[in-house]
C-alpha cells in the first residue's frame, strides 16, 4: 500500500465519519417532523434533545481536531557538536534511503525512536522534520543495532509515511473527541463507536504495512542480524526501563525525592543486569497479530526480514553511546527538560535509595502502628505498643486481622514477618542502619560498618513472650531503641494513591456524592451536580486535579478504617460499610448514576470482598 493510497484512505475514512453524522442529522430531522406531527412539542423535545446534543458533539470534535497543532514532543535538541557521530550516521543513512535528513534530532526519555514531519495541505507539502531518539537506546544498543533503528525511521521518510501523520493524527483525535462527548447510552454513540472501529482497522492495517516497508531499509543498511537483534532488544529494554522506574525511581518520587542523575542510574542498571536483559531478549514470546495493532508482531517482522536481500554491512559492536560527545551530560540535560522536579529534593543515587526505601518501610510500619492504635486505644502508637502486646500475650489476638486464615497461635508466629519490618524501621530511626543501593538486587539493610544486617532471627524472638527479653537485649546491643520507632502518618492519605474506578451520583447517607475509588480508599465528593453529566464531570475532574489533592480536599475514607461491608444488592449497588469507630455508612447506586469506566462497579465490589475476606 503506497503512501498516496494511505492518504486517500485516511481522508476518505475521515470524511465518511462526518457523512455518517450528516445522515444521522437528516434522520433526526425527519424523526422530529414525524414526532411533531403525531405528538406534542414536549415529547418531541425530550426525544430529540439527546440526539441533537450528540450531533453537536461531532461538530465540537471536528473543530477541536482541526485547530489542534501536532507540536514536537519535548526532548533535548542535539547539534553536531553534541552528537557528531549520531548526526554523521543519520546523514549517511538518509542519503542511502534516498531522502533528506531531518532538520533536528531530539533525545527523548522513551525506549523508542520515531520520526515526525510538520507537513501541510493534508500531507501533500512536506515540512520540518524531527527525528526522536530515545536516550535508553543509546545507552543499551550497539552502533549497528542503532543504525538499524535509525534506518527504519528514515525509511518512513523515504516512503513518505510521515506526510500522513497530520491526517491520521487529526482523524483519530476527531473521533476520540466525538466519542468522549457522547454518552454510551445514546444510540448515536453506538453508530459512531462502530464507525470508529472500522476507521482504526483501516488505518492500523496501513500502518502495519508501512512498518514492514521501513524494515527493508533496516536490513539493507544494517544487515539482517543487527536488524533482527535490535528488534528483539526493544521489548526487553522497554521491560528493563519499566522495572527501573517502578523499583528504583517511583518509591523515591512518592517520598518527595528525585535522583539527580536519572539516566545515569539506568545505565548502571543495564550494566549490572545485562545477563538478565539478554535472557529476556532471547526468550521474549511472540504474540498473535491483532487488527488493532499499529505494528506487526516482532516474530512476523523478523520472519519478513529473513526473506529480504541484505546489504554487505560489517557488524559494529561498539556501544552506541559513542555517538554522543558526552552521554552523561546529555542525560542530565534531558532530565532537566522532561522531568518536573517540583519541590522534590534531588539526591545522589546512594542517598536517594536510602531515603526512598526508608520512607517505604516507614509507610508499611505506619499501617501496623495504626492498627495497633485502634486495637489498644493508644495515641501515637509505635513499636513499644506492639511489643507490649507480645509481653501481655495478646499478639495473636491483634495479629488475626493480618492473617485471616490462621488461628491466634499461628497468627502470632507468622507476625515475625511484619515484626521484621518494624525492626528494620527502628534500626533506621535509631540511626544505626541504612538502606544500601544495589543495581543487581534489592536494597540491603546495612549497619555502621557497611555489613548487611538481617533482623529476621531477632523478629522471631520478639513475637513470643518467653523470648521477648532476649530479643530486646539483642536490639540494645545493636543500638536500636524501640521507643524511637513511632507512627509518622497517623491516618492514611491519598498521597501517591492510584485511581482504579469512579461512580457519579451515588447516594451516601441520603446525600448524593461522586465516589472516586482509589487503591487506598474512597474519595467522597458531596453534592457533585447533575446526574446526566456524571461521566463527563468525572473525566474532567480526574484529568485536571491530582488525585492526592482531591483526597485532601474532600472526605477520604481509607479501606483500613472499614471493619466490614454488607452488600445488600450488587446491581444497582447497595451496601453498608461498618467503620472501626462504630459508624455505619450507607451507600446506594441510583438509576441515574453513571460509571467512569464500565468496570467501576465491579472494581468497587472487589474492594468490598477483599475487606470482608
The tally of structural domains comes to 3
How is the main sheet built? 7 strands, antiparallel
How many DSSP H or I helices?
Answer: 22
- Anisotropy-based shape: globular
- The low-confidence runs, each spanning 5 or more residues with pLDDT under 50, are 159-163
- Content-based structural category: alpha+beta
Strand percentage: 15-25%
Q: Give the termini separation.
A: 56 Å
Strand element count? 15
Helical content stands at 40-55%
Mean pLDDT: 86
* Largest sheet: spatial strand order: 12-11-10-9-15-14-13
Please give the radius of gyration in angstroms: 30 Å
How would you characterize the overall build of this protein?
This protein is α+β, with helices and mostly antiparallel strands. The chain folds into 3 domains: 77-312, no CATH class; 348-484; 499-612, PH-domain like. Helix content is 55%, strand content 15%. It has 22 helices and 15 strands. The strands form 4 sheets. The protein has a 7-stranded antiparallel beta sheet with strand order 12-11-10-9-15-14-13, sandwiched between helices. Strand 3 and strand 4 form a beta hairpin. Helix 13 (349-376) packs across helix 17 (416-429). The radius of gyration is 30 Å and the shape is globular. The two termini are 56 Å apart. Mean pLDDT is 86; it is low at 159-163.
